[in-house]
Amino acid sequence: GLGEWPAIDLRRSPTVSEHVESLRDRVAAAVSSAIGSAWPELTDADPVVRRSEHADFQSNGALALSRHVAARPAEFAAELAGHLGPGGGTETELLRDVQVSGPGFLNLSVTDHVLWEQVAARLAAPRLGVPRGEAGRRTVIDYSAPNIAKDLHVGHLRSTVIGDSLARVLAHLGADVIRQNHLGDWGTPFGMLIQYLDEHPDATWHRAELADGASAVSAPNQLYRDARAAFDADPEFADRSRTRVVALQSGDDATVAAWRDIVAESERGFGEIYARLGILLTPADSAGESFYNSRLDAVVRDLRDAGLAEDSDGAVVVFSASATGPDGRPIPLILRKRDGGYGYDTTDLATIRYRLEELRAGRILYVVDARQALHFRLVFETARRASWLADTVDVEHVAFGTVLDADGRPFRTRAGDTVGLTALLDAAVERARTVVGEKNPELDTAELDRIAETAGVGAVKYAELSTSRVKDYAFDVDRMVSFSGDTGVYLQYAHTRIRSILRGAGDDGVSVDAAAGMHPAERALAIALDGFGDALTEVAATLEPHRLCTYLYDTARAFTDFYEACPVLTAPPPAHGNRLALCRLTAATLQQGLGLLGIEAPERM
Ligand code: ARG
Question: pLDDT averaged over the chain?
Answer without folding.
Answer: 90
